[in-house]
Here is the input.
Amino acid sequence: MTTPCAIVGSGNIGTDLLEKLLRSELLEPVAMVGIDPDSEGLARARARGVEATHDGVDWLLERASDVELVFEATSARVHRANAPRYEAAGLTAIDLTPARLGPSVVPSVNLRDHLDAPNVNLITCGGQATVPIVHAVARVCEVPYAEIVSTVASLSAGPGTRQNIDEFTQTTSSALVDVGGAQSGKAIIVLNPADPPILMRNTVFCALPDGYDEDAVGQSILDVVAEVSRHVPGYRLVSDPAFETDVYGTPGGVVPARVVTLLEVEGAGDYLPTYAGNLDIMTASAVGVGEELVRARQEVPA
Amino acid sequence: MSDAPAFRLTDSTLRDGSHAIAHRFTVEQVTAIVSRLDVAGVPVIEVAHGDGLGGSSFNYGFSGTDEMDLVRAAVEARTQARIAILMLPGIGTREDLRRAADLGIDVARIATHCTEADIAEQHIGLAKELGLEAVGFLMLSHMISPEALLEQARKMASYGADCVYVVDSAGAMTIDDARRRVSLLADELDVDVGIHAHNNLSLAVANSMAALEEGAAQIDGCTTGLGAGAGNCPTEILVAAMQRSGIPTGVDPLAIMDAAEEVVRPVRPDQGIIDRDGLLLGYAGVYGSFLLHARRAAARYGVDVKDILLELGERRVVGGQEDMIIDVAVQLERRAAQARAGQDVGASA
Here is the structure.
């Protein structure tokens, strides 16, 4: 039995999400909602046999009883307006925008703590890619400070990201602490215009305290990468985690070492190009969240 | 000194120079350097972490002293000079800019890679809102054509920048490269155009003087050249060369020479030597601030710094991607290990 879902937003993200949901064994996209009658995404949904409308969320809310989960792939502003209406209609919202109304979740890290939340948000692409690594280290030793650098192809950074770049760094650095478990954090984003476009790259630096166990930290990172790559197949280590010793005066205090994890995210190429791993990891994580919510609901019959 | 200066000089010793000493400037050094530059007549002095506000990090190096303490010291030490900061959207945030504005800075220089001007819209906008002079800073300008650069410069001007800089972050521009870019921007923009030159090809002063001929209204220098990579356009040499050419600078040549020798030279006595690695950055077009990081990675992983720099050039990495230095070093190390293993197998076969 599959769980009926709706996608709100028929742009690049919504359309890529549609393709992924069509492959899911647990979730079934039954509706796609947009506002533009000429939307390519809506046409694609119809071609795939998914009901699609350009009449906005009113249309969806009239059919709320046919749907359980709604994926918001619009903008923070639109989601802020829609969220209370979803909740009133009994729909669980998985938010891919930067609105951050509900708890921030990463499927492999903390989703289990928020299974009852009416609204969960997916942080940022950099957050989805790097928080699991911070968590991997933080579960075996203290992480006084974590820092990440996400580099994305210029072509994959839309106007929303460009005009709100501080939102990316601030939201991601908060998640390194709140979700990843570091004591302090910093996030950096770099856009690279190289042609052909580069795959999304993420580098995670975790400060390591005295007495850290290199084998335990390394193994924990490998385990988490394997786990994330189950729902994001293009997520991989470029090389083994590198342990570097020195005297590092971090914002979380002076530490004797750091572990540097170099990651690459290749997109599945469903609708978006493969270099746009930053967008793919959002849609793939959204599906991961949806599937895990459904699994949890099926495990615990109401 | 009665003639009005032909351009406005910004000295970035305390920002770009920060790269050359792994971001270890102290309050005492800032106070001493600002005081001397101020007395010599330098009109704008830039202070920040080398990678701009918020740059203190694993990736770029942690600041020895909180940059806000350095900015405060600079504001307190100046009498006539305007104090500038640099920030790179994606690294620093508007919050950092607000804090610096509260300390009394006058100029906010907002830097992006030369193709990514639109990530600076909010920051340039905020700078203007805070009553600051705003400068747009297009890094690694050698990587794109003058026409493409103009398109990006227009964006920065449209966001409110009072000046847009052609920034030769890799010291890769020939005199002709600098001329063509500055000339097109100066012809087409209604705002000032500036040049920020590095000395990897020993052309920083020449490029700056050529830029002035093409219409640049602002020029950057660093005293003794203290700066990323092979160093910047040395302020005292620029001033002396301009003076010899009959071009008024507004800066006292002897006072700036003394300042260079007495308060900046001791910070890093070997500044000014263009060694192979510094030259390679310019030759391969690699972001200058990668140099010290590449040397550290080369030592740590037992690989050649030359190979790291050339590979970074091949990959066309941009400013801010210092993490790729570790990536390259780890891969070179692995390749070398595989080659050794291959030889062993070959020998035993």
